[in-house]
Design a protein that fits this description.
Blueprint: H1 2-27, H2 30-33, H3 39-46, H4 50-67, H5 71-78, H6 80-98, H7 103-131, H8 136-164, H9 168-174, H10 177-193, H11 214-243, H12 248-261, H13 263-273, H14 280-299, H15 303-330, H16 335-367, H17 371-391
Helix pairs in contact: 1-7, 1-8, 1-10, 3-4, 4-7, 4-16, 5-6, 6-7, 6-10, 7-16, 8-9, 8-12, 8-13, 8-15, 11-12, 11-15, 11-16, 11-17, 12-15, 13-15, 14-15, 14-17, 15-16, 16-17
């Protein structure tokens, strides 16, 4: 009887932790992906240039780059649970400030959004490796799929919320604060009801050794390049489609469709990755999907070609983000290494990714055409394939 009670208690604890992971995942993308379909409206309302409108998506990535190496240290000091709660509070603050219709508050709030998301982004892979060491692939699949599901929903609802419900872009962005409030409530409960334990304290810090690991840099480059593609696509795909004759609401829903269609790939990639000694085959499929998908946008073909291109891009982006996050656990031997690799990959990686929306906006401003931006995206897709093949080797980052 006592054994059964202990088992039930253990299962309930794991269930609550899993719910906590999922609600964190729900908060990681909507505050960012809800912006893409609204960029044109925000740009026109505040009188922004295309490159400065791209900052709305790039600023969170710069905040990721700044906060990512700090987050593991905060997690070690405060505990992962309390630190992720802090991240949710920062996210709520950022969403609220950003919804005030001034350029300065738009940018300041966006930075706070990035800081909050970065904290949770960095700590979640190590937290999962710590709390679910034997279900790493499954839990990574669950949280990345949850993240992508809400990302897609936010993109699809932005224009209907802003126009259909008469909320305007400010309240349409503020709407996603409800998820942060729910997340804060759940994590306060988790912190109060469970004794915090930090398994990271059991392992030696890696210091600067990760910076000397070629594999760590390959994982970082893969993370950064796939993020470059994701955030660039989220920012500018609606505008690209609009230039090809789609109205903005349809373009927003096609972006949402792209992210919904990515969900099977997002869920399956980490599970499949655990079944192979290396992930070269998965990387090749991801790379080819990206090249053919963005290539289809470049040729501006008939409607079926455009839809096929969007599907291929969705598969590539969905599988690449979940595989990149899974690699943070798969390429490390313990929870502390996973947290530190996560900090490194997301700091340098998102710094690279932050270039994407700004660069693509600048290229369009300079050429008044989407040809050069799309060629640039194709080059980035090829580089992602190359670094992904290196990152998918069956090794640990600090393996001799």
């Amino acid at each position: 009887m006592n054994t059964l009670r202990i088992k039930n208690k253990f299962n309930f604890k794991q269930l609550m932790l899993a719910i906590g992971v999922i609600i964190i995942a729900f908060n990681l993308r909507p505050a960012i992906t809800s912006v893409g379909p609204l960029i044109g409206i925000i740009r026109d309302d505040l009188g922004l240039a295309n490159w400065s409108a791209g900052l709305i998506t790039s600023l969170p990535l710069l905040a990721f780059a700044v906060m990512s190496p700090i987050a593991p240290k905060l997690g070690n000091k405060l505990g992962n649970e309390r630190t992720m709660l802090l991240g949710l509070i920062l996210l709520l603050l950022g969403i609220s400030i950003r919804s005030i219709a001034f350029t300065a508050t738009l940018y300041v709030g966006t930075i706070f959004v990035g800081l909050g998301v970065a904290v949770c982004n960095v700590l979640l892979p190590g937290f999962i490796k710590d709390k679910f060491p034997h279900r790493l692939g499954l839990m990574t699949s669950i949280y990345t799929t949850s993240m992508s599901l809400l990302a897609a929903t936010a993109s699809g609802l932005s224009i209907p919320l802003a126009n259909g419900f008469g909320m305007g872009w400010q309240k349409a962005l503020l709407f996603w604060a409800t998820l942060a409030v729910i997340g804060i409530t759940i994590w306060i409960y988790l912190i109060k009801s469970q004794k915090s334990s930090n398994e990271l304290d059991l392992f030696e810090t890696s210091g600067f050794r990760l910076l000397r690991s070629p594999l760590a840099w390959q994982v970082t480059a893969f993370m950064g390049l796939q993020s470059f593609l994701f955030y660039t696509t989220v920012s500018w795909l609606p505008e690209i489609l609009h230039s090809y004759g789609f109205d903005m609401e349809t373009a927003g829903w096609l972006l949402s469709f792209m992210m919904f269609i990515s969900l099977p790939a997002t869920f399956l990639a980490p599970i499949l990755a655990n079944k192979f000694q290396n992930q070269h085959g998965i990387i090749l499929v991801i790379g080819l999907c990206a090249l053919f998908g963005y290539g289809g946008l470049l040729i501006d073909g008939p409607f079926p070609i455009m839809i096929l291109s969007i599907i291929l891009i969705g598969f590539a982006l969905g599988a690449s983000i979940s595989l990149a996050l899974a690699m943070l656990g798969m390429r490390t031997s313990n929870a502390r290494q996973a947290a530190e690799l996560s900090g490194m990959a997301q700091s340098f990686g998102y710094l690279l990714a932050a270039i994407g929306p700004i660069l693509i906006g600048l290229l369009f401003d300079a050429t008044y055409s989407w040809t050069t931006p799309l060629i640039t995206i194709l080059v980035v897709s090829l580089l992602m394939l190359v670094f992904g093949l290196g990152a998918s080797r069956n090794k640990y980052v600090l393996e001799n």
